[in-house]
Amino acid sequence: MFPSLAWSLACLACLGKTLDPDGLAENRARTAAGVVEGTSAGQGVRVFKGIPFAEPPVGPLRWKAPRPLKAWPGVRKARIFGPSPQQATSMALMMGVMTRLDEDCLYLNVWTPAKSQADRLPVMVWIYGGAFSMGSTATPLYDGTNLAKRGVVVVSVAYRVGVFGFLAHPELTREGEGTNFGLRDQIAGLRWVRDNIAAFGGDPSRVTIFGESAGGISVSMLSASPRARGLFDRAISQSGGSFAPPKFADEGGQHVPPLRVAEAQGVKYLQSVGAKDIAAARDLPAKELMKASAFWWPTFDGDVLLGDQHEPYRQGKFNDTPILVGTNSDEGALFIRDGITADRLVAQFRGAFGQHAESLLKAYPHGTPAEALSAARNIFRDSVFAWHTWTWARLQAEKGRNPAYLYYFDHRMPLSPGGATHGAEIGFVFGNPGLFHAPNRPEDAKLSELMGRYWVNFAATGNPNGAELPEWPAYTTASPRVMVLSAGAEVKDVPNLGALKALDAYYSWRRERARAEN
Question: Active-site positions, per UniProt (predicted)?
Answer without folding.
Answer: 213, 331, 422
